[in-house]
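Need residues for this backbone.
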């Protein structure tokens, strides 16, 4: 499967665990691999991967001390095993949430040794976890009776989408809209060979041109799950248009201020805390990504401290805005459903995990919450999505989640 698609700020298409210890909620993600992508990407991906391939990285030494730092020996070993092949200057910022109590863990690889640091207030790109926040804005609009989930998005636009199909807000949020992964006028070759800041110049004019002249749905809305960054971007754009505001203003007003997420923003120029540099696979610093009209798909920068506040709010079953996003809206298969933004994964013990991840040119993130037990893991990193071991970030999350249930 093309690693390129990971850099388009989206769900990991591979099975996230390997070996005999696979659990059902990780196996369910394999369906996202699409055969049609392989047909026209194989040759291009070969060129791309050869141009940005990893330099050989020496296996790091383990300098993580277990005593009095909020993690046990097994968790320490899991963190080390999943990060030992990343280059120098790699950072991970983690939150381990057990029964609503949080421990922050930070690590950095320096001089080929992985050591503990304090970085829970440092800022990372969170990539596609942004979609959860976009869906939360939609839930806010529904609770305020500004619209209904099953409303046709066309009814709120001042231009005509070139499609005879009705597309609902719910279908944008749960990836059943039929919109392709990306708009056809966001040039794929440009994405492949301009990884530094590929979405910066995709603006409202280009989106409107696409929707009014070039749009072609992959299937009838509401019948099939197909992950769409475009759909999430349209959702963020339309909510901002309805409110006669901006996506950033909505985030600040409806979510970040409410949950005291003081170091979260979709605009890099607004960052107040220290921004951790994103890394290329070889460990060199890479450019951050800026978003225009597709901000709702992947623009947010945040800290693990801020995301932990948002996570704790998810455990409040009287918070109608958040509980609505957690409710299943579409069954993908026996082991996976999707709510509004959140993927709902069935665990081996019969429970559920709401989950999302993200990936950009210099960062990888993953967030999973067990609502019933008030447990969760959040991982932010400056590991490039092009790093051949980048999927270790998701693997680490699922392995750490298991340790939270252990006595």
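Answer:
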């Amino acid at each position: 499967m093309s690693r390129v698609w990971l850099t388009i700020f989206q769900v990991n298409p591979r099975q996230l665990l390997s070996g005999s210890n696979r659990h059902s909620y990780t196996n369910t993600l394999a369906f996202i691999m699409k055969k049609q992508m392989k047909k026209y990407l194989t040759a291009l991906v070969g060129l791309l991967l050869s141009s940005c391939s990893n330099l050989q990285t020496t296996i790091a030494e383990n300098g993580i001390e277990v005593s009095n730092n909020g993690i046990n020996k097994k968790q320490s070993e899991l963190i080390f095993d999943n990060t030992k092949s990343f280059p120098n200057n790699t950072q991970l910022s983690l939150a381990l949430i057990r029964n609503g109590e949080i421990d922050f863990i930070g690590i950095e690889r320096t001089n080929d040794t992985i050591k503990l640091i304090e970085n829970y207030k440092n800022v990372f790109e969170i990539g596609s976890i942004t979609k959860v926040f976009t869906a939360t804005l939609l839930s806010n609009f529904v609770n305020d009776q500004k619209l209904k989930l099953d409303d046709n998005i066309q009814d709120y636009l001042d231009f005509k989408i070139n499609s005879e199909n009705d597309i609902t807000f719910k279908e944008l949020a749960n990836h059943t809209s039929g919109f392709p992964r990306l708009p056809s006028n966001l040039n794929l070759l440009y994405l492949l060979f301009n990884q530094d800041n590929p979405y910066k110049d995709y603006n409202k004019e280009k989106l409107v041109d696409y929707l009014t002249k070039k749009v072609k749905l992959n299937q009838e809305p509401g019948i099939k799950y197909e992950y769409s960054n475009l759909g999430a971007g349209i959702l963020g754009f339309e909510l901002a248009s309805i409110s006669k505001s901006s996506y950033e203003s909505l985030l600040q007003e409806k979510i970040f201020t409410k949950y005291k997420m003081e170091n979260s923003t979709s605009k890099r120029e607004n960052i107040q805390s220290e921004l951790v540099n994103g890394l290329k696979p070889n460990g060199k610093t890479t450019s951050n990504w800026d978003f225009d009209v597709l901000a709702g798909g992947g623009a947010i920068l945040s800290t693990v401290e801020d995301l932990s506040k948002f996570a704790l709010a998810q455990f409040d079953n009287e918070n109608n805005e958040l509980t609505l996003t957690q409710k299943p809206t579409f069954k993908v298969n026996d082991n996976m459903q999707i709510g509004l933004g959140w993927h709902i994964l069935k665990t081996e013990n019969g429970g559920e995990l709401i989950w999302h991840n993200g990936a950009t040119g210099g960062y990888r993130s993953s967030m999973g919450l067990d609502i019933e037990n008030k447990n969760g893991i959040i991982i932010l990193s400056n590991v490039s999505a092009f790093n051949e071991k980048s999927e270790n970030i998701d693997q680490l999350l699922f392995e750490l989640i298991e340790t939270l249930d252990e006595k």
